[in-house]
Design brief:
The protein is an alpha/beta fold. The protein has helices at 11-23, 49-52, 60-68, 85-92, 107-110, and strands at residues 30-33, 73-78, 81-83, 95-98, 103-105.
């Protein structure tokens, strides 16, 4: 859980590929998204948006859409902090189950960016 489970541009195609595998495997009926460490996810590294994350198969929005359109039922098992773009990922799941310690915050909203 280095850097509070921050998502990087390299993570996006990996997550998309995993979701493609889930969608092609009819035996998978439920997918639980969970994290290790103190934070669920500190969001997407916005310093990388302009340089690496907007090509096809590497877009943050595309990754979120893949979760939202997953064939299997998706459940976000949330604990600790859910920040920035991680809120989009959690909200893209069909269900969210949160620990009492869970907190969600969208810093970009304060800047009018979301």
């Amino acid at each position: 859980p280095q850097a509070a489970n921050k998502l990087t541009p390299d993570d996006l195609p990996v997550l998309i590929q995993h979701m493609d595998t889930v969608n092609r495997t009819p035996e998978v009926l439920v997918l639980v998204l969970r994290a290790e460490g103190k934070y669920f996810c500190s969001g997407f590294d916005i310093s990388e948006v302009a340089t690496q994350s907007q090509t096809e198969g590497r877009s943050f929005g595309e990754m979120v859409d893949v979760f939202e359109n997953c064939r299997a039922v998706t459940i976000a098992a949330v604990h600790g902090g859910v920040y920035g773009g991680a809120t989009d990922l959690v909200l893209a799941c069909d269900f969210r189950v949160g620990a009492r310690s869970a907190e969600m915050f969208m810093p970009a909203a304060r800047l009018g960016l979301h």
